[in-house]
Amino acid sequence: MIDLGISKMALIGAVALIVIGPEKLPRVARTVGTLLGKAQRYVNDVKAEVNRSMELDELRKMKDTVESAARDVESSIGGTASDIEREFNEAAASFDSTDPVPSLEVPPSYPEYRNPRKKWRIKQGAMPNWYKARNGVRTRALSGAARVARYRPKKFN
């Protein structure tokens, strides 16, 4: 890479001032700046594209390894399943038909789960009114205006 220090930049600026002249130097500097910016953006775009292609290649390799591992697992499971099926068929073939068939026990059935909060209205209604009044349980719903009127502080005259 080109090593541009402060002294070299000052020398380039002095030569540009002499060759181009003070009237055109700002316009030329602006043009050079925009061209350098465009070149920098182009280089960054190329770098990003190269990085994306490298990541894509890595993802493809990873995908291939995962697929091969899945195929290996599938083949091992298929081999195990065929071994079990073969053993089952051998056991079924060797089964003597004169032996009584063992009865299978039916698992006990459990009652269906029911949410205990289903009958909360009945439970609330079973509470005596004197108990509700003593403990502050609301028996009626108040509208917003009624609640404001009930709890508004009293004016002392």
TrEMBL record:
UniProt entry tagged with the keyword Protein transport: yes
One cellular-component annotation, GO: TAT protein transport complex
Assembly, per entry: The Tat system comprises two distinct complexes: a TatABC complex, containing multiple copies of TatA, TatB and TatC subunits, and a separate TatA complex, containing only TatA subunits. Substrates initially bind to the TatABC complex, which probably triggers association of the separate TatA complex to form the active translocon.
Region (Disordered): 92-115
Lineage of origin: Bacteria, Pseudomonadati, Pseudomonadota, Betaproteobacteria, Burkholderiales
UniProt topology in membrane: Single-pass membrane protein
PANTHER family named among the record's database cross-references: SEC-INDEPENDENT PROTEIN TRANSLOCASE PROTEIN TATA, CHLOROPLASTIC
Gene3D superfamilies per UniProt: 1.20.5.3310
Main subcellular localisation: membrane
GO function term, MF aspect, one: protein transmembrane transporter activity
Name of this protein: Sec-independent protein translocase protein TatB
Signal peptide limits: none
Alphabetical keyword list: Cell inner membrane, Cell membrane, Membrane, Protein transport, Translocation, Transmembrane, Transmembrane helix, Transport
This protein's encoding gene: tatB
Superkingdom: Bacteria
Family: Belongs to the TatB family.
Biological function: Part of the twin-arginine translocation (Tat) system that transports large folded proteins containing a characteristic twin-arginine motif in their signal peptide across membranes. Together with TatC, TatB is part of a receptor directly interacting with Tat signal peptides. TatB may form an oligomeric binding site that transiently accommodates folded Tat precursor proteins before their translocation.
